Amino acid sequence: MASLMRLFRREEPIAQTLYSAAVAKARGRDWFIAGEVPDTLEGRFSMLATLLALIDIRLERGGEQARLVSVSLAEAFVADMDAQHRQLGTGDPVMGKKVGGLVGALGGRVGAWRRAIDGAESWSAVAERSVFRGAAPNADALEFVERRLREFWAALEGSSDERLIAGQLP
Predict the structure, then answer these.
(1) Quick one: residue 63, left, alpha or beta (phi over 0 = left, psi -120 to 50 = alpha)?
(2) Distance (Å, rounded) from C-alpha 58 to C-alpha 54?
(3) Least enclosed by CB within 10 Å: which of 22, 72, 160, 169?
């Protein structure tokens, strides 16, 4: 019976602590007040996906263990999106398509932020699309978000793989 229970037990992704830290950071009040990120499901998702994209890029540029955690971070994201949408009443027939779309949105952000980090695209343009989906607030709010994202990226670059894997975000 015990081995049967293990068969159905869902193990927590190894990056769950890191994922939880990213969620907490994405819920920071400053994003929604000074940054004027819409305090809606879409706005909260955009903020989380943006931070996860930056964290993912940093992990990909780390050592072997960090790259493995990058995969686990995506698994934690998928599990959370599935759970959140089930709580909102999304049923099984459309769940795969819905979560697949959210994963695609995260992947698009990862690509856009790679271009910004590598200097191929402006941080401001990527922040406007990634966080505000092209409908940026006033220039001061966009500048605030861009500055905070640049600071977050710089702090991620300065963090050790071990700290990030342990969920200790800057």
Answers:
(1) beta
(2) 6
(3) 160
The pTM of this model reads 0.84
Helix, strand, coil shares, percent, the chain, to 5 = 75, 0, 25
How far is Cα 56 from Cα 37, in angstroms, rounded to an integer? 22
Contacts by residues 119-124 (CB-CB < 8 Å, ≥ 24 positions apart): 123/149, 123/150
Tell me which residue of 57, 40, 36 sits closest to 111, measured CA to CA.
57
For residue 53, give the H/E element and its range: helix 41-60
CB 77 within 8 A of CB 55: no
Convert the pLDDT of each residue in 111-164 to its tens digit: 999 999 999 999 999 999 999 987 878 999 999 999 999 999 999 999 999 999
d(CA 16, CA 102): 18
Query: Is the predicted pLDDT of residue 108 greater than 80, yes or no?
Result: yes
7 or 20, which is more confident: 20
* DSSP code for 34: T
Whether the CA torsion 97, 84, 44, 17 is positive or negative: it is: negative
